[in-house]
Amino acid sequence: MKNAAIESAVSKSTGPRRFILQALDPDHGSPVLEALFLVTELEDLRALLDINAGDDPELEGSYTLDAAELSAITERFGIAFDPEGREARLESWHSIRLVPYLVHNGYELPLLLEGRKQLARFSEAYPPDRHFDEEKFDRYVAQGLLHKEVVVEPFERPYRRKDGQVFEGQRTAYYTRKGEEWRIPASKLIWGAAAKSKWNEDFERMQGTLFGYEEWQNDWWLADLHKRRGGFGCLPIYRAVSAEDLAWIETTGYRALPPTDDSALAVNLLYEPPDDDAARHLMEGSGAAALVRLSVRSPNFLGLVDGQSGPDYAVPAPRIKDLNRNIVGEIEIVARALSPE
After folding, report:
1. SS3 for 210-270, per residue?
2. For the chain, which residues make up each domain, given as ranges?
3. What does pTM read for this prediction?
């Protein structure tokens, strides 16, 4: 059973969760058949997968299923799904599916072969010395359909993770269609320039163009990033506020959070906007009247909460003024508490 965690900071256990069964093409490893189903109690699905709650509390990983696990899931949740001998996988639904075009994640190889994508880039710490499904790409490199280039950059000193695994450096594998090799040095120039300044909208657009995305697709992607995060270099921070807090925020023109009598200000870093159930969950038990979102400059916020691990953070009360100085744009009301009947 293979687990590749998907980044998410929003707890979705307050309501039905969407999961997807996939059948993977044996040649290029991408999904060719999918079935969506709902899970009300995560423990029902967790028991079928035999996964410890501490390993993946919200079942946000990606799991390869054996025949017995697939049969148990389809029977328990009443799903008509036959992979017809293909490898089966379970995925948690992700908001990337809301994008109005096919994003390359998980579809790099078939998109390259079809000419809908011109460049693929896989950058990971090593060991291991190969990225996921690399042998599938290499088959087409050997046939002369794709060009491959690998760049290995050792760290100054090995990095040891908390679980004891040691990484020696960064390995980046590039693939292009034949005749499109120029895109690799162009991509290197972009990442090199970003390393000396910082990643921004112009770099994002150029990288998207090198990948092969159309202009309207780049436009949509950048507009969505601004909508969700408030711009590049910012983090989307959420805070449950009282009616009095909300009135105070309004007097500032929605530009600052009020001071607190507590020792710290509790906030949440959520990379994906919370749905209605998750928003209500964040406001429960605090007497909150609303949930607000603010975009805060990333390095400044991380400096204020240094040493803490999210998604829940506590900004020391004396540093709220520093938090307010780094808010970009206006504070947005994203949800309001239901009025008592």
Report:
1. HHCCCHHHHHHHHHHHHHHHCCCCEEEEEEEECHHHHHHHHHCCCCCCCCCCCCEEEEEEC
2. 17-94, 108-228, 234-336
3. 0.70
